[in-house]
Amino acid sequence: MPPRALTLDVTKTSYVCHSCLSNLQALHPNPQLWLTRHASNLARRLPPRLQPAARRTRGAQAPLSKQKLQQTLAQLQGGLPSPETSSRPDEKPNQDITINYFNQDINGHRQQLRNDEEFSAMSGGLDIDVESAINRLEEQMVNTVEMLKRMERGGMQDKAEKLRGRFKRSLRLQYKGKTGPEDEEYGLLRIPGFSGPKQRTIASLNKFLSRESVVKDGIPKHKDLAECWKFYSAARKTLSSAWGNVPREVWDFMWMILSWEGVENPNRMRHIYVLAKDMSAAGVALRGSQQLLAIEAMFIEGWQKEAIESWRKAVVTLGSKPDTFRSYWELGVRMCSIHGDTERAQRAADTLLKSARESDARILIPIVRALSIKEATLEQAWETYQNMRSLLGETMTIEDYDEVIGSFLGSNCVEYALQAFVDMMFSGAINVRGKTRLPIAVSNQFFVGKWLKRLIGAGDLDGAYKVVAYLQGKGIAVSPIQLNGLIGAWIRSDSAEGLEKAESLAWDMIRSRLAYVDMRQRAGSMERPATLFDPIGLTARVNPNEDESEFRCATRATAETFSLLAENYCTRGLHDRLGKLWKAFRHSEIGTTSFLLNQVLRSYTENGQANEAVALYQSMTQDHNVRPDAHTFLALFNTLSVNRLIQRDAELSERDIIDGRRFFKDMVRSKWMFDSPDDFIYLPRTILFTKLKAGDYSGMIIAARAMKLLFDFAPPESLLIELAAGTATLRVKTRRNVTRVMEGSKLIGGLIRQAREELLREGYDVNNMTVEQKAAELHQVLEKLILIKAKAEHLRPEVMRPALVEAADHMGVHDIVFGQDARQIAEHRKVIRPTMIAEE
């Protein structure tokens, strides 16, 4: 790159060379506004380093040739005719010429250059150290070539050829530049003019710019985006002392990276805003697309008035050119609409839509959104929507309608939103605006359900709630299925506001359910319901400070409503609210579901009320005919002390053996089936660990045999290792756990080898075992492990049989385990077909 300014001190002649003269003309370029482009001959007034590229492919500017410079000096010093003087033969050149070279920095300070080499370095845009390094590299390459020639002359042609091939491959791997996302090419990128220990930030930025992996295949990676801003922001302060040293190609390259649009670049506008200001400070003219993005970044960063003013001033340079016409006017519509200047936004939209150039009527959506905010301009917003709809015609998509509907719902204009949805569903054939009673095609749960489902699916939960309130005011009852979906969506949002709204709506539905039950009971007893029967104190709202005139949902709660609240309360540990919910459920005359029961059991257990949990289970199953499921028995086994207390108590462990056997008996006798793979894994695992911790070894053997027949359960090898180690999980990597797991794995491996040896002695092919044989082998290993834990591995079977028979009687599986009663097994099976496959 040529120096910023060159001044010649000619002592014996007035001659100035053509190269220096061209640089003297660019000493003080006219200042330009950083966000506007003028239609004048700007490119001709700027120095070469600031002129925009004439082609899309941009490479580094070629430095002044050293040979050409020497020829020029020889011509001047030797009296040879130069291109500038050859046209004047009557004028004799002066033989004695002394040329002094100067460099002028950005602040106007001039410094005389020492010699021709320093002038060559400054005019080429390279530091002296860099040029010296290049010269050394050239010398090394020449020496390498000479060495290869000597090896060939010495009879080492094969080795020389091999080294020559490696040398050529290394040359092919040299830096070839970078390619942007639009196939634009960037040459060797580097910021010259900074050196020394205080310029480490510039060195880091240069190292990043020279990295070949940056923007590979024209697509910046997340690492490229982060590191580009990291190194540039660190170097900004140093660069600001000499902005002119930054080549235009470096600015374009950093702009290309930092302006990349995607989720990987969340701070895109902030970075563009800073980069555009720096480019303006450096005197670099922004291209049209860059100016538009810089204006948008300024607007988003909070400088709305300034951005709109910059946009207005660029109407001639950007608003009339074909390549920026559409983007310019669309940006103006969006900015003016957000800023509230709807009149200017409308004029910009009219200019765009009425022009002969291609345009998109969807640009009217921001205007609709801005006009719908104020009641005074609501009709104007509706007319703008109608205009857009007529312009788009059949090309208007569902997403376009969603944008319009969301705009009206956000402004509490539910009637306009409903009309837009009706337009979408019926192509504008039905008009509902201003009508007290809605047409039958609209006032039905099917139509309303489709709208609410779409709003909830799009995440517009507040809009869906407004629709519910509006339709209830029109006498349209919303289905509890849709409201339960809204409650669930609010709960899943994990926000305090969402949880509060979900709880408020759910309790409104519960109040409606209790009021309905009260009216039904009074009607049955021929009493006129004067006041609402409130047995659990639900008359007051959840928040007593709420306005009583606020919307109250009339849709009645269902079992799903109670289940959603119960799960949420249980997860958050709100035992008191769960107790209130359970009390309301008891008065709602809704058939009790096992899901709600399981949540209450779990809450009781976590709150230290295990006895109350067991009593509730007995009451629900015996008095109210609630059918338990796998989750119910998981909750019951977790009420035992061995699963709740850290320190074991001998007396409580004895009680756990009795209760555990009783729970197992209830589990076998109850009519339920496995409904998920998780239950199928965790229930047998919980039962085995519970009996192991309680010391019920005989009950553990009976449970394993019964679950094999009823669950098709085969203990996987990982579970055997956990049981052998005595730890409930292999993922806790403490030193003690690791030691226990290693010992357990060694024990299980030995037991499996013993089982294989027994099969070999019996004549089985252990290399081609069937699934049933593998399951039988793992069951055999499990029983041997239980005997080892019980220190009864040397007892004969007849000695252990009485204890096993007693356990089977207590657990209600004697006929199943010892009698192998096919009828009993078929009646109490919990799986339709075998689903558990033994792990190898």
Automatic annotation (TrEMBL):
Superkingdom classification of source: Eukaryota
In residue numbers, the region (Disordered) covers 45-96
Q: Where is the composition biased (Low complexity)?
A: 64-80
Q: Which UniProt keywords apply?
A: Repeat
Q: State its role.
A: Regulates mitochondrial small subunit maturation by controlling 15S rRNA 5'-end processing. Localizes to the 5' precursor of the 15S rRNA in a position that is subsequently occupied by mS47 in the mature yeast mtSSU. Uses structure and sequence-specific RNA recognition, binding to a single-stranded region of the precursor and specifically recognizing bases -6 to -1. The exchange of Ccm1 for mS47 is coupled to the irreversible removal of precursor rRNA that is accompanied by conformational changes of the mitoribosomal proteins uS5m and mS26.
Q: How does it assemble?
A: Binds to mitochondrial small subunit 15S rRNA.
Q: Which family does it belong to?
A: Belongs to the CCM1 family.
Protein name according to UniProt: Pentatricopeptide repeat protein
Q: Which organism is it from?
A: Lasiosphaeria hispida
